[in-house]
Fold:
Amino acid sequence: MIEIVLLGSGNVATHLFKAFSASEGTCIKQVYNHSEKTLDFFRSKCDVTTEISELAPADIYLMALKDDVIPEISEKLKDLNALVAHTSGSVALDALRACSRRGVFYPLQTFSKDNDVNYSEIPFCLEANTAQDLEILKTLATKVSGNCYEISSEQRKKLHLSAVFVCNFVNHLYAVGEQICEQNDIPFDILKPLIAETAGKVQHASPAGVQTGPAIRNDQSTIKAHLDLLESGENKKIYELLTSAIQTFHGKKL
Structure:
C-alpha cells in the first residue's frame, strides 16, 4: 500500500484524489491546502490540514499546486524522509532541489472538477533523481493507469507546449465557433459530429496527413468570403494567421 499526502485542492488534485481513492493499492492519508474553504470536498473523506507543520507521515508527498509556489513549498518539505513529487507539466525536476528525494508525476490530461475522465487511459509522465524513486513513481502510476512514460524535464516542457496547442488553443477555437453559431441562431450541437470526427482521425493518422479545408486547398474565394463574414477583428487575425500557418506548413503559395 502506497501512502500519499496530497498537497493542493484544485482540478488536478481533485481528480488524483478520486483516482487514488478508487485504487486498491493506494491510500490518501491527508490533503493539504493553505485555504480552509477549498478543503470542503475532502474533509469527510480523509484528514485535511492547512498547516505544512501538520503533514502526516507518508511514502509520497504529491504537490498538485500552482507552478509558481512549487519551489517555495518544496523548501518546507526538505526535511521529510520521503519522496516529494510535483504534477506540473512545465516545472523542472530541479525546482525540488531542496528535497533529497524528488520526482515528477505529470498526468497529461485536461481536468475539470465536474467532468469524469477515464483514468486508465491518462498518460503519466514520470521523472526522478534516482532510479529507485522512479520505480516508485512507476508503481504509483500503474495503480491507476496503463500509460506511463519516462520523460525528462526538457522533454516535458516541449510536451506541455505541444499540449497547449492541441488542447487549450483548439478549445478556444471551439469557443469562437460556438460564439459564431450563437450569434446566428445556429445550435452548436450541429458541429459536434465534425469535432468528434476530426479528433478521431488523429488517433490513427498524422494530423498533417488529414488536413482539409479552404487553406490547404488555397481556395481564395472562400477564404475572402469567410474574412468578410467575421465581425471581430481578433477573429479575423486568428483566421488569417491560421490560414497562413497551414499554407506555409504544407508548402502552399500564399
Q: What stands out?
A: The chain has a mean pLDDT of 93. The beta strands are 2-7, 26-32, 47-49, 60-63, 83-86, 102-107, 123-128, 147-150. The longest helix spans residues 153-183. The CA atoms of residues 11 and 111 lie 6 Å apart.
